[in-house]
Amino acid sequence: MTDKRYGFLELLKDVKQPQRYLSPEIGAVLKDKFKIRGLLVFPDLYEIGMAHYGFQLLYFLGNSIEDVYIERGFLPWFDLKELMEKNGIPLLSYETGTPANKFSFLAFTLPTPQHFTNLIYGLDISKIPLKWKERSEKDPIIIAGGMALSNPSPLLDILDVIALGDGEILFPKILEVFKEEEKREKRLWYLSKIDGILVPPLKKEKTRKVFLKDLKNPFLFKPILPSYPSVHHRFNIEIMRGCPWGCRFCQAGFWYRPYREADLKKVYEFLIKEAPGSGFTEIGLLSLSSSDINFIYPFCQNLLNKLEKYHISLSMPSLRVDSISFPLIETLQRVRKSSLTFAPETGENLRLKINKPIKDEEIIEILKKAKGLGWKKIKFYFMLGLPFEKEEDLKDIVYLFKEVKKIGFPSVNLNISNFVPKPWTPFQNHKMPHLKEFYEKQVFLKKNLPYKAKFTKPEISFIEERISRGGEELGNLLIEAYRKGHFFDAWDEYIKFEEYLNIL
Asked: How many CA atoms lie less than 13 Å away from 457 in the CB half-sphere?
């Protein structure tokens, strides 16, 4: 297929990271024959999107369907954006350099509410009208899905189609409608009849979220090897969806219900075949609580028996402290000791109220074992401002880390975010603390913790809460915010909070 980059490549000599815009990569799909062609857009930089498992899943799922060709799109950084606008170049597909507005549809994956203004940026740089009322037959249909749309209200005037639920169910059904119907009006009408699909131009009532009953037949695929390393440069594969627990603040735990485990035998057979030649040196076993999966220890042990000769290691991004076994930790460190990650969230007493009953003594015991096995790097995630939080709970956090200090890890990475009440959680209607309260809590911890911590700016959390729980009126405000230069809002250093506050 011919590359149609319209002078785009010539611009790359004047940007800071040109390699993030170059293709094709090993594993990318190229097709010459197809009936329908759509653009899957990740509303952020290439290296962010290529680390997103759901984005790569939809790409391979769509391209596995006959007569369908799915290409990818990523947003240009500020330097390239300026050059593209100056030269009249729209957003181009990554595979063939086709202008985004020439596709039948654009499908956005929205990980967080902070990506809403980036979606608007993506439409604008693609030269597509920002609201569905302004689009005509010649314009692509604009689709979006993802956990950020657990409250779709802010985008009801912008999106043509909203997908609520598991992509393995919804994406093939969407593609079948595009294959069967050619007219925009008919496509929207048929899409509106599908469970889990909301079509704002036709109706704005809620629809039920749809989900796979199980993961016994997982959609297994070999990920693309990025030309520019992604932020989590791993061979990612999902081994669980949902969570067996029920932490009351956790949106992912409730949004991805019910709890389902993948068939580990099929995952094992796939990985020992595909991982060695993939170009990746680490496998990411994705889940919300990896160590709770049945037979996870023998699975990891047998997998490493096959892969360690290729110097391929395993990582688990979410290990629940009270269910980690000594043999599992020992297995994970066989090839490469990277870091262990724990998320106690708060002090021991408050953990009971948020339904995360982990005791400090369990955390300390596991850390001592990890230290004995040679682990040097430990990551912790905590949260401030949870419902029922008192000063004693902050003191409990300080106490825990004074105990951690005694163990003597060379590297302790401590991240402290702010509670944001999210849709679909038991805490969705709780009041969020004022900015001043957050800052007071942060000052207390900065003075008393034995480690330097990375704190999320309370202003960032305020914007996240405003968009997460906002209504339909927010659509116009988000467009206004974008036109005043507010995008890449998921990047803390680029948010102009005072200006944003005046808009929202």
From this structure: 13
